[in-house]
Amino acid sequence: MSTIQAPRSGNSRIALQYRRTSGSKGNFEMLAWLFMRLSGVVLVVLIFGHLFVNLMVGQGIHAIDFGFVAGKWADPFWQFWDLAMLWLAFLHGTNGVRTIINDYAEKTATRRALKTLLYAATVVVVILGTLVIFTFDPCPVLNGQLMDGSPSFCPAP
Amino acid sequence: MPTKPAGTLYRGREGMWSWVGHRITGVVIFFFLLVHVLDTSLVRVSPEVYTSVIGAYKNPLMAIGETGLVAAILFHAFNGLRVIAIDFWKKGAKYQRQMLWAVLIIWVVVFGAFAIRHLSLALGGH
Predict the structure, then answer these.
(1) What does UniProt give as the signal peptide span (chain B) (predicted)?
(2) Using the beta-carbon criterion (under 8 Å), do A60 and B117 form an inter-chain contact?
(3) pLDDT tens digits, residue range A107-139?
(4) Domain range holding A121?
């Protein structure tokens, strides 16, 4: 039977001789564990709702275009639905991938590099997504004219 | 001389395989999520660019991929609720095996319904 390695996530509950890094993380790992369960329940509701409204109703995927997004984000309800989904899904997913990196990347330098890449990608995508939801313009104008493909409800500028 | 350890309740059985499935589906969903935020962000470039890129999701090959993605999401969701029950319900650990079978049965029903509806919309003539 092969030896089971010590966890590489946090030090607080790992005996001194098995610690791979110094310093204490407090109860971060417990809070992360709790967050996965709480966000998981909320994400089931948010993502099932998202899939049902976007893919199951009416014409399903054929209805999705710029005007479809404009119609949804005209309502603050869907803006906050999508915002909550974006943040919770990324925090949940990033923590999951962090756990997987800790489990399989044995070298400290490899773990550090992969987690830096992971966190950078998460920060960029979450900020980008948040800005897109709140700066969305349903009737974008370029050089004094409505951009091609704008929804038919847009008034002439 | 230590004797060979007996088989465990976990290794190679339902508990382990559901954990493997949870990890794999989780990673798949995470990478799709990265792409999905980027494609949605094209609404800030122009209506034409967004509509043409999102149009790529409407071809039959992508419809198969979307169906696979939803299969992964549904497993991750139902098995995640099972993990929560194992952790917080007093009898959760005792019934983890039965709960996995419940997860798989619910998964077949919900995934079947989704696949029929989505594939008939996506592959149907338009």
Answers:
(1) none
(2) yes
(3) 999 999 999 999 999 999 999 999 999 999 888
(4) 38-137
Burial A13-31 (b: 16+ CB within 10 A, else e): eeeeeeeeeeeeeeeebee
Which chain A residues touch B5 with a CB distance below 8 Å?
1
Q: Is residue B58 part of a domain?
A: yes
Q: Which residues in chain A belong to E strands, given as ranges?
A: 141-142, 145-146
Structural domains counted in chain B: 1
For A77-90, the pLDDT digits (tens) are 999 999 999 999 99
What Cα–Cα distance (Å) separates residue A100 from each residue in A27, A90, B37?
19, 15, 22
Q: What is the ipTM of this complex?
A: 0.89
pLDDT at A62: 86
Express each pLDDT in A33-63 by its tens digit: 999 999 999 999 999 999 999 999 888 888 8
Interface of A with B in 117-136 (CB under 8 A): 121, 125, 128-129, 131-132, 135-136
Nearest to B27 among A100, A128, A140 (CB): A100
Q: Would you call B43 and A100 a contact, using CB atoms and an 8 Å cutoff?
A: no
Answer yes or no: do A147 and B48 touch at CB < 8 A: yes
Euclidean distance between CA atoms B19 and B76, whole angstroms? 10
Residue A4 pLDDT exceeds 80: no
DSSP-based three-state secondary structure for B7: coil
Mutate to test the interface with A, among B106, B121, B123, B126 (most CBs of A within 10 A): B121
CATH code, domain carrying A105: 1.20.1300
Using the CB atoms, write b or e for B59-75: b if 16+ within 10 Å. Answer: eeeebeebbebbbbbbb
